[in-house]
């Protein structure tokens, strides 16, 4: 995630907090998707350890109440995700996802019911570490290539963002569009593909991302600093300042994410809005 780098905070302004959890409804699943989710949860939860074999197809289909055709479709999904490998004559082996899966698996790691709120927050922190590795270099590369037309496009997007301060989901969509333009300017196909995976994780856990972003008006004010970095003739001189700014924003954002994870885990808090951040 390539995001704005905050400068000095403006005076606190009351803006909409993260929508309640029931504002993020589950998408209806096909039978094979539900089966894949059940098996994925068992694998990630350790019920089927790494190196073990899943139960025979007939028995597993009966246990899950599925047709064998639906089960095979679910297993194909899990194999594509790097969680299992079907071996001719020896069944379906459970793989170590850390060696075989991709970034998209965070979509599921961040929503496991058997995982504690603190562990979920740690997974989110892992995503931030990746963002940290990529964000500053992407900004510096973009600064070397940016044109006047690019800056005009970014400024237009920021002006649109100001109209979305009362609508967190629309604001998040606009911020992702803004980030994608910066990634495009940087000129790295590999980065664009990485951003695609990050964007899928973001939309699957929009509530956590909005909690991390915090008050929208404060976040909106940071776009100006990004444009300043893009306009400078010597953007590498901004690196140390940018890293210090990221330290601050990540520390504040992670506090909000941990609280949001606890809300997810506590039924009594499910419909509460996230409190405004107070540095």
Per DSSP E runs of 2 or more residues, the count of β-strands stands at 2
Strand content: under 5%
User: Which second-level CATH architecture of the largest domain applies?
Assistant: Up-down Bundle
Portion in helices: 55-70%
Q: What is the radius of gyration computed over CA atoms, rounded to a whole number of angstroms?
A: 21 Å
Average pLDDT over all residues: 84
Q: How many domains in all?
A: 2
| Quaternary organisation of the protein chains | single chain
Q: In the CATH hierarchy, what is the class of the largest domain? A: Mainly Alpha
Low-confidence stretches: 4-16, 24-28, 268-279
Distance separating the two termini:
23 Å
Question: What does this protein look like?
Answer:
The protein is mainly α and 279 residues long. It has two domains: 31-99, Arc Repressor Mutant, subunit A (Orthogonal Bundle); 105-269, Up-down Bundle (Four Helix Bundle (Hemerythrin (Met), subunit A)), CATH 1.20.120. It is built from 13 helices and two strands; from the N terminus they run αααββαααααααααα. A two-stranded antiparallel ribbon has the order 1-2. α1 (31-44) crosses α3 and α6 packs across α8 (168-186). It is elongated, with a radius of gyration of 21 Å. It starts with 30 loop residues before the first helix and ends in a 14-residue tail after the last helix. Residues 4-16, 24-28 and 268-279 have low confidence and may be disordered.
Secondary structure elements and pairings:
Layout: H1 31-44, H2 57-64, H3 68-80, E1 84-87, E2 91-94, H4 97-100, H5 106-109, H6 117-145, H7 148-162, H8 168-186, H9 189-204, H10 206-213, H11 216-220, H12 223-231, H13 239-265
Antiparallel strand pairs: 1-2
């Amino acid at each position: 995630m390539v995001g704005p780098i905050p400068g000095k905070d403006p005076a606190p302004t009351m803006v909409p907090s993260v929508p309640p959890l029931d504002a993020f409804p589950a998408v209806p699943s096909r039978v094979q998707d539900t089966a894949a989710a059940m098996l994925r949860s068992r694998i990630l939860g350790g019920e089927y350890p790494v190196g073990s074999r899943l139960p025979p197809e007939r028995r597993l289909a009966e246990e899950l109440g599925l047709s064998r055709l639906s089960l095979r479709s679910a297993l194909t999904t899990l194999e594509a995700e790097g969680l299992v490998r079907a071996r001719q004559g020896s069944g379906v082996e459970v793989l170590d996802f850390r060696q075989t899966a991709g970034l998209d698996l965070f979509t599921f790691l961040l929503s496991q019911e058997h995982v504690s709120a603190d562990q979920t927050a740690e997974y989110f922190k892992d995503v931030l570490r990746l963002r940290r590795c990529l964000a500053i270099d992407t900004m510096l590369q973009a600064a070397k290539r940016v044109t006047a037309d690019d800056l005009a496009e970014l400024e237009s997007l920021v002006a649109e963002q100001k109209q979305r301060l009362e609508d967190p989901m629309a604001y998040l969509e606009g911020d992702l569009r803004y980030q994608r333009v910066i990634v495009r300017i940087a000129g790295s196909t590999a980065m664009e593909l990485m951003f695609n995976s990050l964007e899928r994780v973001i939309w699957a856990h929009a509530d956590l991302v909005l909690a991390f972003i915090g008050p929208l008006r404060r976040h909106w004010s940071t776009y100006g600093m990004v444009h300043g970095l893009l306009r400078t003739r010597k953007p590498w001189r901004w690196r140390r300042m940018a890293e210090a700014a990221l330290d601050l924003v990540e520390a504040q954002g992670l506090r909000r994410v941990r609280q949001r994870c606890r809300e997810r885990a506590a039924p009594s808090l499910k419909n509460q809005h996230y409190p405004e951040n107070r540095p």
